[in-house]
Design brief:
By secondary structure, the protein is α/β, with parallel strands linked by helices. It has two domains: 180 residues, Glycogen Phosphorylase B (Rossmann fold, 3-Layer(aba) Sandwich); 184 residues, Glycogen Phosphorylase B (Rossmann fold, 3-Layer(aba) Sandwich), CATH 3.40.50.2000. 40% of the residues lie in helices and 16% in strands. It contains 15 helices and 13 strands. The strands form two sheets. Strands 3-2-1-4-5-6-7 form a seven-stranded parallel beta sheet, sandwiched between helices. α6 packs across α10. The longest helix is centred in the C-terminal third of the chain and has 17 residues. The protein starts with a strand and ends with a helix. The relative contact order is 0.13.
């Protein structure tokens, strides 16, 4: 039997991004592009032509004849994009979904733009929300990253729950292998960090709830703040002026708060995780929460929100707290420093959780979804 021919949207991998770095959708797409062929399908990367990508693409990529906006408008009026010469099924990972002459699977990563429009940029918001809703209406089947996301997809995208499959994300296996001796020390020295800090990783934006984390840290006893830096890794995103102002104010006051707006590489980021005494992720809403798995794999104990999908992703391996309660976050931070038994339990359970959630497992489960449609 011939291998299933899968078309995968990979426009997020070409022509830009944030300083050439991939966002969460890009990381997910790149992981599928690497691992799906090893799961037994024939993969073709697909992109829409347009000014962002230019005319040239790497060899073997299928470039659709129209830019996405033109094809989406045509699709809205019933036009069908013919692709079966190349593929048997198409998987859109980036909300860019149009009618095709083969089954279409769409990964809808979260419902933030529709459920929490105040957390998103107003620039082109109406057009983007239309695009996202069209993705839900047009796809033959939808992939969500967590069970917690399903209710939102049903409510805000008006999708039949029977048309949704939950396929968790994963983490690359090399995250489970500690960096070579001296590498972490070199990275920490480069960024003037002392091993044993509290760590947050994520784009600065309202739903990441960084202000509450800062308040929690600043409420810790002075002896702890003197020894433990708070290290924030993430670029400035939409509506983060208050967070940036709070970081700068803490620094002016002599607090040991470090903001690293950019990392030179993922290898450096891995060393930053390894050097932390605890990873704190008080997000108010996530579609999955990849940083949890990165911290777990790095052997760093985790404190995370007890809402959204984060308890589901953590699987009992993290200390869960009310993300709106800075006192609860501060108590958990101090507890992880002082209770070595709890620390070791979180580290062990976290590594087990990361080992379970691999990108290979994600690819295999995704291929199972494809096979139900062809």
């Amino acid at each position: 039997m011939n291998a299933l021919r899968v078309g995968l949207s990979t426009g997020t991998l070409y022509g830009g991004g944030h300083g050439g770095k991939l966002d969460g959708i890009g990381v997910y797409t790149a992981a599928l592009a690497r691992t799906l062929p090893r799961s037994g399908c024939s993969l073709t990367q697909c992109v829409y032509r347009g000014p962002v990508h230019g005319a040239g693409f790497p060899h073997g990529i299928v470039a659709f004849p129209r830019p996405f906006a033109q094809q989406a408008l045509a699709s809205a009026f019933g036009a069908t994009l013919r692709v079966t010469e190349h593929i048997d099924i198409y998987h859109a990972t980036d909300y860019r979904v149009v009618r095709m002459d083969c089954p279409v699977v769409a990964t809808l990563h979260d419902a933030v733009p529709l459920r929490f429009p105040e957390w998103t940029s107003p620039r082109l918001r109406r057009l983007k929300n239309w695009q996202i809703r069209q993705a839900g209406r047009t796809a033959d089947h939808v992939i969500a990253h967590s069970r917690a996301s399903v209710a939102d997809l049903v409510q805000y995208f008006n999708i039949d729950e029977g048309s949704i499959s939950v396929v968790p994300c994963g983490v690359d296996r090399y995250w489970l292998v500690p960096p070579e001796a001296g590498v972490t020390e070199s990275v920490l020295s480069r960024y003037k960090l002392r091993s044993g800090y509290f760590l947050f990783v994520g784009t600065l934006q309202p739903r990441k709830n960084l202000g509450t984390l800062l308040n929690a840290y600043l409420s810790l006893p002075e002896r702890i703040r003197h020894e433990q830096q708070l290290v924030i890794v993430g670029r400035a995103g939409w509506r983060c002026d208050a967070d940036v102002a709070a970081i700068l104010a803490a620094q002016r006051a002599g607090e040991r708060v470090v903001w690293l707006a950019d990392m030179a590489s993922e290898d450096e980021l891995r060393s930053i995780y390894v050097g932390a005494s605890a990873f704190i992720f008080p997000s108010l809403y996530e579609g999955f929460g990849l940083p949890l798995l990165e911290a777990f794999a790095s052997g760093t104990p985790v404190i995370c929100s007890d809402i959204s999908c984060l308890p589901e992703v953590a699987g009992g391996a993290a200390v869960e707290v009310d993300p709106l309660d800075p006192e609860a976050i501060a108590t958990a931070m101090a507890l992880l420093l002082e209770d070595s038994t709890l620390r070791e339990k979180c580290i062990t359970l976290g590594k087990e959780r990361a080992a379970l959630l691999s990108w290979e497992r994600t690819a295999s489960a995704t291929l199972d979804v494809y096979r139900t449609l062809v």
